[in-house]
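QA checklist item 7 of 12: single-chain prediction sanity check.
[x] sequence parsed
[x] length recorded as 354
[x] structure emitted
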Amino acid sequence: MENMKKTGRQLREVAKFLGGTVIGEETVTIYNIRGIDEAGEGDLTFIANPRYKNKLEETAASAVLVSPDVKESSRNLVVVENPYLALAKALTLFYPEERDSVKVSEDAYISEGAEIAEDATVYPGVYVGRNARIERGVILYPGVFIGNHVMIDENSILYPNVTVYRRCRIGKRVILHAGVVVGSDGFGFANPGKDNLKVPQVGIVEIDDDVEIGANTTIDRGSLGKTWIKKGTKIDNLVQIAHNVVIGENSIVVAQVGISGSSRLGKSVIIGGQAGLVGHIEVGDNVMVAAQSGVHDDVGPNQIISGSPHMSHRKWLRTQACISKLPEMRNTLKSLSKKIEELEEKIKIIESQA
C-alpha cells in the first residue's frame, strides 16, 4: 500500500485514539500500517507476540505498538495493554470501510410491501421480497437475495450473493460475507435410507447483533422454532450449521466446522477448524474444541477437548505421545509373550517330573 499523505496522522493522535502512551517522538506522521518486516518510514507496526521482540530494533517502522513490558527502545513506541486489539482499532482509523452513494439502485428489484429506510444502500441486482424490512444504514451488495418477510436491522452489511430466505431475522451491525446462505432447509427426512420423505422446514434463522459470518457459510432454518446465532459470535468461512442449533454469545467457530441439528453451544465457546459436532448435544460455556475433533457427547463448561472421539486435551496429548511408540511397544509385547510361553513350558516339564 502506497503512502497516502491525506490520511497521515501524528503519532500522539493515533495513541489517543488507541488509549495508549507514546514513548519517543509524538509528532512523527503515520500514513500506513504494515507488518514488522515490511514496515518503513511513515508506517506503524506492532509486536503482539513476545517471540518477535528481537525485531523491535531491526524494524524500519516509524512507530511500534507494544505491550507495557517494553520499557524503552530506539524506536518510537505506542504502549497499549493489548497490541493486537489496538492494531484492530488502528486499522479502522487508517482504512475505513468505503461506502458508495448508490442508495437504492433503479436496477434493484423491490417487491410490493417491502420497506427500505431512506439511508440504506441497495446495489444493482439486489432482490428484496414482499414485506421485507431493511433498516437504516444497511448495505446490500449486488446479487443479494432477501426473501419475503425478512428483517435486516440497522447498519448490517450483506456482501455480494448473500441469500437470506423467508422470515429470517438479521440484527444490528451484522456482517455476512459473500455467498453466505441464511435459512436454507435443514436436512430433515423421515424414514431415511428408504422413503426419504422430506419433513417441511418451517422455522427461521435468527442472527443477533454484532455477528460476523464468513464467506460461503450456510445456516439452516429450524425445522420448528429457530436456529439462533447469539450476539457477538464470529463464524469463519465454509461452516455448516444445521437446523435448530443455538450458538451462545461471543463464540468463535473456525473454518470447515460442521454442527449437527439441535446442538446447543454456551457462551464464549471456541471451535477449531474441521471439528465436527453430532446432533442433540450441549457444550458448556468457555469450552475450547481443538481442530479436527469429533464431539460425540455433552461437554461440561470450562474444558479444553481434543481428538475423535473427543477427550480432555491433556489425555489426548498423552495418547498422541504413545502413537509413535506403538511399533516398538508391539515388538516388546511379542517378545514378552514368547518368554511367558517358554516359562510356562518349563513349568509344565518341572511339574511332570515332580
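[x] summary fact logged: The chain has four helices and 39 strands.
[ ] second reviewer sign-off
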